[in-house]
C-alpha cells in the first residue's frame, strides 16, 4: 500500500512538473517580426528584367520580318509540292525561333527571381525579420521593407 501511494505521489509530482514546464515554454513565445515587400515595384526596378523584355521584343520583331520573307518565298513556289516542302521547312524554323526566344526570356526571369529572393532574404535577416510576404498577400500588420530592398535590385 505504501508503495502504491509513493508511486502515485511520484507520478502526480512528475505530471505537475511536466505541465508547469510546458506552460512556461508556451507563455514565453514572442511574436515573429513580419515584413512585406511590393514585388511588382521591385520587378519594375530590375534593369535585367527590362533588358530581357527589350531583347524579347526585338527578337519578336525580327521573327515577324523573317515570317514575311518566308511567306513571300512560299508564294513564289509554282508547284504544290514545292510549297508544302517550304512550309514544313519554315514551320520547323519558326518553332525553333519561338523556343529560343522563350528559353532566353525564361532564363533571364529565373535569374531575376533568384536575385530578388536572395536580396529580400538577406536584407530581411539583417533587419531581424522572420517572415516576409508579398504586399498583396497581407491584409493587416507587418512592415513594408520595399524601400530598403530597392537599392539591392539590379
Which percent band covers the strand fraction?
5-15%
Q: How are strands sequenced across the largest beta sheet? A: 2-1-3
Give helix and strand order, one letter per element, not per position. Answer: HEHHHEEH
Distance between the termini: 78 Å
User: What is Rg?
Assistant: 32 Å
Helix content: over 70%
**CATH fold group of the largest domain:** Protein Binding, DinI Protein, Chain A
**Number of helix segments?**
5
By CATH, the superfamily of the largest domain comes out as Skp domain
The low-confidence runs, each spanning 5 or more residues with pLDDT under 50, are none
Q: Report the major sheet.
A: 3 strands, parallel
Number of strands: 3
- Helix/strand/pairing class, anyone? mainly alpha
Word description of this protein:
The protein is mainly alpha-helical. The protein has 2 domains: 1-30; 32-152, Protein Binding, DinI Protein, Chain A (2-Layer Sandwich). Helix content is 74%, strand content 6%. The chain has 5 helices and 3 strands. The chain has helices at 2-27, 39-44, 47-76, 80-127, 146-149, and strands at residues 34-37, 131-134, 143-144. α3 (47-76) packs antiparallel against α4 (80-127).
List keywords for this structure.
mainly alpha, three-stranded parallel sheet, 3 strands, Protein Binding, DinI Protein, Chain A, 2 domains
Amino acid at each position: 500500500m505504501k508503495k502504491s501511494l509513493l508511486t502515485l505521489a511520484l507520478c502526480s509530482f512528475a505530471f505537475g512538473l511536466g505541465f508547469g514546464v510546458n506552460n512556461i515554454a508556451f507563455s514565453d513565445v514572442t511574436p515573429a517580426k513580419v515584413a512585406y515587400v511590393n514585388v511588382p515595384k521591385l520587378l519594375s526596378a530590375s534593369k535585367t528584367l527590362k533588358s530581357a523584355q527589350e531583347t524579347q521584343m526585338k527578337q519578336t520583331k525580327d521573327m515577324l520580318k523573317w515570317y514575311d520573307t518566308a511567306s513571300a518565298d512560299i508564294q513564289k513556289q509554282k508547284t504544290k509540292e514545292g510549297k508544302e516542302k517550304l512550309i514544313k521547312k519554315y514551320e520547323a524554323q519558326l518553332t525553333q525561333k519561338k523556343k529560343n526566344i522563350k528559353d532566353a526570356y525564361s532564363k533571364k526571369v529565373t535569374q531575376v527571381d533568384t536575385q530578388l529572393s536572395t536580396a529580400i532574404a538577406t536584407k530581411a535577416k539583417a533587419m531581424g525579420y522572420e517572415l516576409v510576404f508579398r504586399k498583396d498577400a497581407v491584409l493587416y500588420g507587418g512592415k513594408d521593407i520595399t524601400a530598403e530592398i530597392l537599392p539591392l535590385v539590379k
